[in-house]
Design brief:
about 50% helix, single chain, 5 strands, globular, alpha/beta, 5-stranded parallel sheet
């Protein structure tokens, strides 16, 4: 039977590293009978190696209006191409972390789309999902939203995110139950996003094991891309900047670049949390029963899905003593960048002026020769004779 391996995240579980690894090693995977295809479809703010995004992708025109017909056509074409690839390969790998949160949206229900597209075909759909503890997942997701900017969720405070939980799915058991209704519980592989649990010690080797493959020296890990989180103070600075009424993509990219650099240079020390310890316990309590069922039904054992170690460094507060320093560093770094860019522009302008002056002299010489052709030829002969 043909098998579609569908990796659905969750978000913030090294999905980009997995996707880059699969693409960089596509030839080695093909030798093993696995295909990681790349389609020509492109979606805004979606990196090209997320090859399953066409199943949930949204397309808008220049006025922000959804293009439903075009979306449906892309889904039909994409599934058609997968069916064609199955004529050559027994196993196909697709990956997109957006499926976890968006997979059951009414307007992007990829499970119905796959069910309809594969109707009457001997194709097994096997789902791979990595899970991280809900509080850690939520913070990492919120961090990325604020860092990304230009999104409705980019201006939400931590309190608002916890209260509203906009479209993010933290009831893991509920989502897995819904997915199992389409593919069968036996076709869902649940892995923990925790280095202590990675087969072979890396996310790449662990992912290969979910495909029933073994990591060997024939595979290459070329992915050097990092997606560092912002520190909590820098998150708040960026969140406020995201509210600027005249925020453009250029300005947003600039702010993100500066704050990411500052977060890398001075990562957070200690283990302070956006929750107090009591708030943390209450938040996780709502998922305790579902998490226990995941352990029993998907991992085949008893116990806790995640450890219950809470952050103990105290709850983050906006008026912490480091905030003023971080604000000063942000403005100082911004000014330094602007000064450097201004200097570079001046040097570029100087070089352009010198180039224009040379071209001007060249043009004047041509004009002189056109006006005085006999004299120009005579002067050239004299120079030739001297040589």
């Amino acid at each position: 039977m043909k098998t579609l391996y569908l990796h659905i995240g969750t978000p913030k579980t090294a999905t980009t590293s997995i996707q880059n690894f699969c693409w960089d090693n596509r030839e080695e995977l093909k030798k093993q009978g696995y295909c990681y295809p790349l389609f020509e479809y492109r979606f805004s703010n979606v990196q090209k190696y997320r090859n399953a995004h066409f199943l949930v992708g949204r397309i808008k025109d220049e006025n922000g209006n959804r293009q439903y017909d075009q979306e449906q056509e892309i889904v039909r074409e994409g599934i058609g191409k997968i069916l064609s690839l199955f004529e050559k390969y027994d196993n196909i790998i697709l990956s997109d972390e957006g499926i976890w949160n968006r997979g059951f949206f009414q307007d992007t229900n990829c499970w119905e789309r796959l069910k309809e597209g594969f109707k009457g075909k001997e194709i097994a759909v096997k789902v791979i999902v990595y899970l991280r503890r809900q509080d850690d997942f939520l913070f990492s997701w919120w961090n990325q939203q604020v860092k990304e900017g230009m999104l409705a969720s980019s201006v939400l405070s931590w309190g608002e995110v916890v209260e509203k939980l906009p479209y993010i799915k933290l009831d893991y058991y509920d989502i897995l139950t819904q997915i199992s209704a389409y593919v069968g519980k036996e076709n869902i592989t649940v892995r923990l996003f925790d280095k202590r649990h990675f087969a072979g010690g890396t996310i790449q080797s662990d992912f290969l094991e979910t495909l029933h493959l073994k990591y060997t020296e024939d595979y290459r890990v070329l992915d050097s891309m990092q997606n560092p989180s912002l520190t909590k103070n820098n998150i708040e600075i960026k969140r406020i900047l995201n509210m600027m009424p005249d925020l453009s993509k250029q300005k947003n990219d600039y702010f993100r670049k500066v704050l990411t650099q500052l977060s890398e240079e001075n990562p957070e020390e200690g283990r302070n949390s956006m929750f107090s310890e009591e708030e943390n316990k209450r938040f996780l309590e709502q998922f305790k029963e579902g998490n226990a069922k995941i352990v029993q039904e998907y991992l085949g054992k008893d116990g806790d899905l995640f450890d219950d170690t809470y952050l103990t460094g105290g709850k983050w507060q906006i008026d912490n003593e480091q905030m003023i320093r971080d604000m000063i560093r942000f403005f100082g770094t911004t000014v330094s960048y602007l000064m450097e860019e201004n200097r570079a522009l001046k040097e570029k302008d100087k070089a352009l002026k010198e180039q224009l002056e040379v071209q001007k002299q060249h043009i004047n010489n041509i004009r002189y020769k056109m006006k005085h052709p006999v004299k120009a030829v005579s002067e050239k002969l004299k120079r030739t004779g001297k040589e």
